[in-house]
Amino acid sequence: MSVAATNHLSAEATAPAPIASFRALRRNFGETIALADCSFAIEPGEIHALVGENGSGKSTLIKILSGILPQSGGELVWNGQVANFDNPRAAQKAGIATVFQETLVLDQLSVRDNVVLGLDHLFRRVLSNAEETRLVRQALDTIGMATLGTETPVAALSLAQRQGVTIARALLRPWRLLVLDESTSALDVDARDRLFEALRRFRAEGRSILFVSHRMDEILDIADRSTVLRSGRSVATLTRGQTSTETLLELMSTHEEAEAAEGAVAAKIRRAIGAPVFEAKRVAIRAESAAFDLTVRAGEIVGIAGLEGHGQVAFIEAIAGLRRPARGAVETERGAVTSFGNAARAGIAYLPRERKTEGIFAPLSVLDNLTIAALRRFSHFGLLAEARRRAEGARLIKQSHVVAPGLTAPVAALSGGNQQKVFLGRQLALRPRALVLNDPMRGVDLGAKQDIYKILEQFASDGGAVLLLSTELAELCLLCDRVAVFHNHALFAVIGRESLDAQALIAAMFGQAAAAGRQL
Amino acid sequence: MNWLRHRLDVLAPFAIAVGLFVVTAAVIPGYGNLVSIRSLLLLASLLGIASAGQTLTIIMGGIDLSVPAVIGLACVAFAVAFGQGVSPFIIGPAVIVAGIVIGAINGLISRTLRVSSLIVTLATSTIIYGAIWANTKGDNRGSVPDFVTDFVSVIGWTGPIPLPGSVILWILLVVVFVVLERRSVLGRWSYASGANPGAAELARIPSLLLWTVVFAISGGLSAVAGILLAGFSSAADPQVGDAYLFTTLSAVVIGGTPIIGGRGGYARTIAGCFIITELTMLLIGLGLDEAAQQVCLGILIVMLVAIYGRESHVRMQI
Fold this sequence. Notes:
heterodimer, A: alpha/beta, Rossmann fold, 6-stranded mixed β-sheet, 20 helices, 22 strands, B: mainly alpha, ABC transporter involved in vitamin B12 uptake, BtuC
């Protein structure tokens, strides 16, 4: 440790050129801005942490750096020269090794084949078997996984070991900057400690590491400097001495987003809270994760938050009957939820996340799209009572604030926001007692968002229960009576109206109990 | 503007059908006379009956390649059994029920095993052809009752109407199918399922039931077509439906129902049936032999579908 620190200090004294720097880097997908303005530099021999909540632009930045996405504007300077990596190979050749969040392994191949993946040419092997084995062994050794058999099929490995394989793969090539995108999340403490030792050795050699993690303790432990991203902007770069959990959480919380959602709901109307509509009892999302209870009552809007992949999606899918929890049960007045069909009979309607692939029937009319899930209600011996169906369609259009040229217009002719409202209207047509929504405001324009807020407020005021998973924290703060925050595949905290703000949510998402005002 | 384009799109195949008739009448002497028009209607009606179920399966996002096999089975079973003295009022319904059951199995297997209906219906076809052979050993002697022959006779009458029963049946079928597609739960489910299969289950459409019923309809109508073709050829011929694989699919696609489903409809397939029947008659009228007819028909249909491929592409863009 002391060697590394000395090395680091002397590096600063001579003020070498940064190995990589970003200057006003920008990236948009259509109208969505993933990266607005990102500027910071990574020094040689530095472990640099990148911190931010979901959608703050971390992954986009890493993809640009790794040659997967081109930027829309701004500059990426690599080793003193402006660089544009056209493809991942170009970035690799320049000396950037990236380990992605997903464990990209081929199950059928051996550990050795997985680690050397991409080294060979199409028809010609570059190395002999023995040579490959030696290199793989060495790479696995570096990260403390020396006991892993090189000929074991990857399918037989644990998640942590697979993660190790992807890290070893990155280490095999000559590199000057190692990018770890949440690569430690699957590792156990022991493996992580050994990886950190290796990272410190690399740092001592003058090589750099860009490190993304959602664990505050890891960041505080290993990062020399930390850059905070918020809504696609780099808001601050902190040195080791300045970094603390409180500062990081404070910097990650957005203030401007709250304004965007402003004016949507006239006033916080106190709704009458009624009887439980559904109850999650001793539910565990995974076999090894902690069990918890959550009751949602009539007239309530309950938010669901969590960093991506922390079990919150699995939880709402369990409520909707799309999957069974590892343990526990979801109970309603009309029995336990065991399938998508019986969830519907119990009055639970579910709005899937992907409007295009899971929602809209593009060539069909607005009327068909609104009523398709409830067609049986208009059926007389299989034939449709068309007048009644149209009347219901007209009512749903009004209830869902849909702007459409007519009931018979194809839904594809509507704007994305209006399509989303039609999709929501389809769930309302089922006359549910509870709405379970998987991120309904994602990629929807501001006007439509406000309409959706109104629909949900009205639904709850009429005695419905709403379970709202959202990645937009300002929205959760605005709409919800309380928000259940998930961490490590379990309910971590339930934050009530009185202490509900973005900062509390982020603290809980990052597993910071005290800062979240944790209560369960 | 969109409305106009949509209308033109629907009307285009009908315009081609009419145009083709006018051109043929000008080229081939005697083509415009009453007998020739009646035979056009008759042949189109046979194709139309065989294409009805196919249209619905394609709208739903499936495909029924067992149409020719079921036609062959129905033809042989009906003619052979009648030849052996079984009442047509027993063997007729029995054959149709068999077609319905085969279709239902097609739909059921495609859905429960999540195997493409293309493979399932091809497999069913092979099984059916094998079963026919195993049971008849190639001895396909049979006969057909006169009323069935009259039903598909060019000079046949239906009561006071100077058209054969097959044409009247087709007209009724068109009415039933258009209502089924537009005004029934089954119809709307079919379109939705074809338009976005991933969303269909989440929209609480009972896919298993839907696929089973739609394929059963297709199987039942193929069996009806088989009985009519038995009357038309007055023999038990297992190969009688072979041409109907290509022609039913072409009629659906030329009519303007895209092969991926979700759009189109049986009304459009009517135009497709006329176009294909007219092309066949034109080629016969030009004096081409059987082999040359098939070569030309293949080329012409690919050309027509190519035109349609482009148009549906434009349609997708709006």
